[in-house]
Amino acid sequence: MVEQEVLEQRILGFAGRPARPSYTARYPVNEAMIRHWTDAHGDRNPDYPELAPPAMLALWTMPGLAPEQPDPGALDELVELLLENGYTGVVATNLSQEFDRYLRPGELVTATPVIDAVAGPRTTALGSGFFLDVRTDFTVEEGERVGTATMRMLRYRPREKLPKGKRRRPVKNQDTSFFWEGAAAGELRIQRCRGCGELRSPPRPMCASCRSLEWDWTVASGRGTVYSYIVHHAPQMPGQELPFVVVLVDLEERTRLVANLTGCEPSEVKVGMPVEVYFEQVAEDVLPFFRPARSAVGGR
Ligand SMILES: [Zn+2]
Fold it and tell me: Distance, CA 279 to ligand 1 centroid (Å)?
């Protein structure tokens, strides 16, 4: 017990230390990189590339595959200490960014990361662990700050055993409850953008095509073909027999959906195979599953 307390004090003591030495970008902000970014995002804002998109801020100081990588620092020491003591799980829980002004081509950015806060131990659903906030200040010549980013991550000791026999329940929230209510009613509901009519799966708040936040849903036929699949052999999942098949289905309606496939041997699953949805009550939830289509291709 005492040992654990000493360890916890050591971990908490990292707060306030520089995470790594400051690192200056290899190249100044430049038009080519801005173009790559805006092309990839389909962003046609006419202010770019004369200005750089603010969301590119952290990118300028990413070393990538540079032969000279930033020197390690206290953050690496802390991570090593956590790993040695069984805190092997990691999950990023939040990223907040502030942008003070636009960057322009020619400016050279320096990143200065600090271990802003260490909090814990906290008990979470994943296991007991520590929240680390790493704040990176971005500056240009003469030390002018142009923005800052704080990444919060949880480093935790994974729970030794998942609750036995109980299958993990689906996440139901504002964006997904229509889907699960549909399943309970025996319907495969697919989210549809009210701006442009595009279907999207899995559900999310905004349309990637027209950026509308307005949406409703349509009922899919439940027929489709296997676009891709995996056979899950490990690890053991609570309440599920191994191996099981997870398929990515190309629905007739031209969107894709991930679900489990039953009704045939894993070795019989093929890309392009026609499948159909069915619903089954599993503990408290009704879940959609796919099985090989009973009607021939193009039938019904
Ligand atoms: Zn849309």
Answer: 29
